[in-house]
Amino acid sequence: MAASALLFSAAAQVASAAPRQVQLVCEAVYLPARSTWTRSVDIRYDDRRIREVAIDGQPVYTFAVRGTVILTSQDNERIQIDTAGGSWTSDFRGLASAQGRCERVD
Q1: Cβ 68 vs Cβ 76: under 8 Å
Q2: Cβ contact 70:60 at 8 Å
Q3: Could you tell me which of 15, 74, 5, 17 has the C-alpha nearest to residue 46?
Q4: What is the average pLDDT score of the chain?
Q5: pTM value?
Q6: Which key words tag this protein in UniProt (predicted)?
């Protein structure tokens, strides 16, 4: 009986630690070209932290989290995604920039 209780407890801990995923779709307007790009952001997380971030299906090499903002870069584009405010801000080393809204996909 004790062994089955221990097994159930271990299974419950594994289930709660299983990563979950949120997908955002961001409509970013790039300047100076004034073009709109639809960007997808996949965020995998568990009970303690964000585990992985992918933009347009490509995992980012590294990222940092400051409160509700994810900071990362991809192909020389520095990107800030505010998950609470639902916004995308990015910069191509001063040559171009983008801002837009992000919405959660269910």
Answers
A1: no
A2: no
A3: 17
A4: 87
A5: 0.80
A6: Signal
